[in-house]
Please model this.
Amino acid sequence: MADSYHHGNLRQALIDAGIKIINENGEENLSLRKVAAACGVSHAAPYAHFKDKDELIEAIKDNVTEKFMEKLVEAVEGKPTADAAIIAMGRAYVTFFSKNPDYYIFLFGKQNITAHLKMNKEYKGDYPPFLLLRRMYLLHLEENGLEKTVEEQEIELIKIWSIVHGMASIACMKGVKSSINWNDIDERLLV
Amino acid sequence: MADSYHHGNLRQALIDAGIKIINENGEENLSLRKVAAACGVSHAAPYAHFKDKDELIEAIKDNVTEKFMEKLVEAVEGKPTADAAIIAMGRAYVTFFSKNPDYYIFLFGKQNITAHLKMNKEYKGDYPPFLLLRRMYLLHLEENGLEKTVEEQEIELIKIWSIVHGMASIACMKGVKSSINWNDIDERLLV
DNA sequence: TGCGCTATCTTTACATTGTCAAGATAATAG
DNA sequence: CTATTATCTTGACAATGTAAAGATAGCGCA
Model:
C-alpha cells in the first residue's frame, strides 16, 4: 500500500513533511511541490486533500497548535494551586516558542489568527490556549476568594496573556539584548 | 525628468508603492513586479536600487519603523512625568498597530527582527522603540529616586515592553473576544 | 463475480514571480 | 565632446501555485 499508486495516508504525511520543512528550512521554503516531493508523490497530488496551499498551512497550524496545547496542559497538570499552574503555563508558553521561534512566526506571523479561527469551526471563535488560561484564572479567583467584575477579569486576563505572549514574541525576535534567560523565566516577571 | 527614461526618484517611489500595496492588499500581494508596475517602470528596474526583494522589504520596514517612532516620540513629548510618558507611549504603541494590523505582521511577522537588525547598521543592535522606552524608564527611576540593579531594571523593562508589545500583538490578532477597547487603553493595564 | 463509481494520483499546461544577463539610454565627470 | 557610470528595458529561466484531463485502484452493489 505504502508503495503503490495510492499512498495510503498522504494527508497526514503532507502535514508531517510540511512541519519538517518549516523546522529545518523555515517557512519561506515551504512549497506545495517540495512537500509533495518529500512524500514521493507528484506535485498536484496534495490537491486531492487540500483545496489550496492555505488549507494545507491551516492543517499544519492545527497540528502545531495541538502540540503547543499539549505542552501547556502538561505544564498545568498536577500543580497544587491555580497560581502555580499559571506560572507554569507562562513558562511553558515562552519556552515552547523560545525553543522553536519558527513556530511563533508560523502561528502568529504572516496571516493573522483571525483567518485561522474563522476557518476552524472547532475553535468556535476562541483560542484554546486562551481558554486554558481563563480556566486557570477563574480557578485562581475561586481559590483566593476574590470577587471581580467581568470587565476587571477581562483586563487582568489580557494583561497576563499580554505579558506571556509578549515575552514569547520578544524571546523569538531576540533583537533586544537582555540578560533574561528565556528558558528559565524568573517568577518576578509573572506578577 | 519624472516622465523620461530615468525616473528621477525611483527608490523612494518603490518604497511608497510597496507600503501602499501592503496597506491595500496585504503583504502577500507585494511583488517586485507589481511594485515596479505601480511606478511605471519595467520589472527589473528595482534591481538598480535594491540587491533583491529582501532589500526592498528591509527598506520598507525602515520607513514604517520611522513612522512608528514618530508616533511614539510624538506621544512622549511634552509629558510632565516619565510615568505619564510611558503610559502615553504604551497607548501610542498599541494604537499604531491596532489601526493597521498589516504593519504589525509586516514588521514582526515573517522574518524575525534579528535579520532586520543585522542588516541595519544604524540600529547598532538595539531597537529604537526599545531604546526610547529605556530612556523613559531610567528617567522614571531618577524622578522617583529609585535604585535598581541592572538586572532588576532589565526585568522591569522587558516586563513593560512585553505587556505593551503583547497587547499590540493580541489587538492585531483579534482572535480573542474581549471587552477592551484597544484604541483607548485603560490605565489599569499599564502597571 | 463483474461493473461502475469515486477517491486518489499523474501529466500537462499556464500565469506569476524572483532573478540574471545583455543591451539601451541618459546624466555626469573629465 | 567623449568616456564612464547609473539607470532602465528586454528577454530569458527556474520555481511555484493552480487548473484540466486522464490514469489507477479500491469499494459498493447488481
Notes: Residues 4-6, 31-34, 43-44, 47, 52-53 of chain A lie near DNA strand D (CB under 10 Å from a C1'). Chain A is about 65% helix and 0% strand.
